[in-house]
Each structure stands twice: as C-alpha cells, then as structure tokens.
Amino acid sequence: MELAIQTQALAKQYGEVQAVRGVDITVRVGECVGVLGPNGAGKTTTVKMIACFLPITSGDVRVFGLDVKTHPRKVKAQIGVCHQENNLDPDFTVLKNLLVWARYFDIPRAEAKRRSEELLAAMQLTEKAQVRIEALSGGMKRRLVLARALLNRPRLLILDEPTTGLDPQARQLIWQRVRRLREEGVTILLTTHYMEEASQLCDRVILMDEGRVLLEGTPAALIAQEAGSSVVEIWNVDPRVRALVEEREWIAQEEDGRLYLYERDGEEIARSIVEIAPDQERLIRQATLEDVFLLRAGRSLRE
Predict the structure, then answer these.
(1) Are 32 and 89 within one domain?
(2) What is the pTM of this model?
C-alpha cells in the first residue's frame, strides 16, 4: 500500500539536547494516525520536521515518496498544517487571512473566495468573515487555523493538538470535520493530549517519550496488550491488600495514595481483595487508552 509518510532514523538535536532520537514512522495513504506522549516527548518536533518547518539533524523523511530535504516545495503543496500555536495575521480580517493564504498555492482569486466561504461555513465562522483576528475567541481562532490548513485541499493534513483549550461543542465540530476528511481519503497525522480524541479518530496510535517511539498499534490492541480489559482502582489501601498485590505480582501503579491494578479480569481481582478486606474502597472500570499512556509514560507531571 502507498505510504503517505515514511521516516527512517529521524533525529533532531538542539545543542546538547536530543529532542528526537531515531524515530521510524510509517503512515499509509488514507490512515489517521495519532502521535501521543507527555510534554517534551518529541511529538511536535517530529511533526514539524515532517511538515518541512524544521531542518532535520539526521535521518530521512519522505512524504508521498518525496524527500522533504530535496523537495520541500512539492511536499508543502500537498499538505495542510494546523499548528499548535496561533499564527494568524492580526492585521487582516478572518476572510482575508484565507484569501492571502491562498496566494501561496497559486489558487485563482475567484476559486480562493469560493473555497474560503465554504470553509468558513463548515467551521461556523461565516458571520465573522469581516471581523479582525483579535476580536475572535480562542476557539474561533483554532477553527480558522484548521480552515486555513484545508484551503489547498491537502492530501495530508497535519494537526498538532488541534482541540487544546476548546469547549466541547467546538471540539465535536472539529472531530466531525476530521471524520469527514477521513471518509474522503485524506491522510491525517494528529498529535494530541486527549486520549479520547485519539481513540475516537485514529486508526493507529504511536506513543512517544524522550524522543523515541515506545508503542505503536490500534487503540484497542494497545489497551488489551498493555492494560488488559479492566482496571481496579483502590484508595485508602488496606495493608493486607497491599501484601496481596505484591504476592500475586499484579501489574500495579500507585500515585498519591491511589493504587491502580491492570489485569485481564478486574472482577476476579476485586473478589480476591474483598475476601481479605471486605471494606476496602475500590472501583472497577473498563481500561482505556489513557491507562496505556499513564502506564508507559508515568503519572508525574512533565514541565
């Protein structure tokens, strides 16, 4: 199957800091692939090298078979990028931001206006067409950045944390648009901190940490492989329960006095706990992609 993205031993170094360390990623045409990881994992740096926004220290990146080092203009013509930061032009109105952007792709004026109006309608921004950027809310700006990324009708859409800070309605609007683009055959590379977002939208996910790929697979497969089918959460842990956990060698993680047990059969674990400590406070729930993330990346905050 044709590859939209292929990286080999991709690396990026800033002085003494190695932000990306030999990353190998493949994304097939038409796939939606999510890149997950804590702050500083190397997600955004990796994405920016793929999108020709950062020079590569070593390794290779090909987008639709084109080497980004030798054919950056041809690569950029086929991709749309929704950056994490707001880089809209504050001197222009909403509509003019799109019309000026269209010039970079040599889109004829009449066609640029037609596409811009269609995208503003899709992002529910039509009434803001003549409003300047500083008058928009944060959510409106994020929707406009996505509209701009779609203006050249890209074959590959790169979304770097596209829904950070959005309210639920705006997030759902962007999710709906991403789903529609997938149905139309657009390839999507998505970085996100929202595990539900990755589970909802992505065919596969890649978990990065400290500049390396730790895990890769479908959300369902990774949950089953790493966290099992269910999670037992325990708080105010009875010493007898703690001893049982150590004796049975259950997969466990503890944070701030709360114990998390990851196993295939949470009901069986709960029964074992109740037998020795009937009053033990506990909760059994279905395992999620967030559990995989926290198991592999840890629960401590990263600055």
Answers:
(1) yes
(2) 0.89
